[in-house]
# Entry
Amino acid sequence: MRAILVREFGGPEVMHLDDVPALEAGPGQVLVTIRAAGVNPVDAYVRTGTYPQKPALPYTPGFDGAGEVAAVGGDVVSVKSGDRVYIANDNLGTPRTGTYAQQALCAATQLHRLPPNASFAQGAALGVPYVTAYRALIVRAGARPGETVLVHGASGGVGIAAVQFARAQGMRVIGTAGSDRGMQLVREQGAEVVVSHKEPEYTSAIMKATDGRGADVILEMAAHLNLDKDLAMLARFGRVVVVGNRGRVEIDPRATMARDAAILGLTLFNATWADLGVVHAAIVAGLANGTLKPVVGRELPLADAASAHEAVMKSGALGKIVLIP
Ligand code: NAP
# Structure
C-alpha cells in the first residue's frame, strides 16, 4: 500500500509517498481503508522533531482520518467490516499507525461511527478540531447559552467547529478571519459579527458589536499575537481559552483584575477517556442532526502532503485541508 513516510525530522520536504507493506489487524486492532486524512497544524509540529511527541523514525504522519473498516482483529465487537468510521486519538496511549496512508491500523477505541450524511472528507475534519473546539468552549470556558463568544481565528479547522458548537448551543458568536473568503465562510457558519484580525482597528469593531461590554468567552488561536488585546476585550467574569500559541507575549495582568477574568490553557491530549466519550457523543449527534457540518476547504492527493503542511501553517484558512489517498 502507499503511505507517506518521514525518515528524518525537518521541513515539509521530508515527507515522501512510498510503497510500504500492507497492514494486518491483530487482536484488538481494526484495519481501516482511509478515504480522507485530516491535516492539522500539530502534524507539522511533530514533523519538525521539536514537538514534545516525537515518534520513532520512520513514521507515517496523521492523527485524523475517515474511511471504511476493512478487517477486524479477534476480539473486536464494536465495529465490523464495511462500517463507515472516523478516526480520533483515544488519549490512552494505544499504538496506532498514521492516517496519511491508504490504510491505518487502529484500536476500536480510536474509531467512531460516521453518520451517512457526513462525507469521508468531513469525517477527516473531526478528530483534533472538533474535540478541541468542544473542550475549549464547553469544558474549559464553561460557555452557556446567551453568552457572547469571540472565536479569534474562526476560519480554520478548530475555529469553524467552535462557531458551529456555539451556535448550536444558543450562544452569540463573533468571529475573526484574515481574508475576505475566510470572513465570508465564518459568516456562513452563523457568526453574527465577523471582523478581519488583519485590520488595525478590529478590536474597536468587536467592542462596538458588544456595546462596549466585551465578550464573555474568547477562544484564541494565536495567543502569542493577541492575548494582551483579548484581556481588554473581555466582559466581567470573562474567560480566554488559549487554544493556539506560537511564541511569547507580554500581557498586562491588571486587565484581568477588575473583570475577575480567567486565562485558561488547553491541550487536547489532557482529555480523559471519559471526557472523550461525551465529546464524541456530541459530535456524532451534531452531525446527524445537521448542527455540525465540517467545512473542507481543500482536498489534495496524498502525494501533495508537503504542500498541505505548507498551507496549514499559512494565513488564508478556509476550513479543513484533507489528503485523499
Ligand atoms: P488552521 O486550520 O490552520 O487555522 C488557523 C486559524 O488561525 C485560522 O482561522 C487563521 O485565520 C487564524 N489566525 C491566523 N492569524 C491570526 C491572528 N493574527 N489572530 C487570530 N487568528 C489568526 O488551524 P486549526 O486547526 O484551526 O488550529 C488553530 C490553532 O490551534 C493552531 O495554532 C493549532 O496548533 C492550535 N491547536 C491547539 C490544540 C490544543 O490542544 N491546544 C488543538 C488543536 C489546534 P486566517 O487564516 O483567516 O488568517
Observations:
- The radius of gyration is 20 Å.
- Residues 40-42, 128-129, 132, 152-159, 176-179, 182, 197, 221-222, 225-226, 243-244, 266-268, 312, 315-317 surround NAP (CB under 6 Å).
- The chain is about 30% helix and 25% strand.
- The chain has two domains: 2-126+294-324, 128-269.
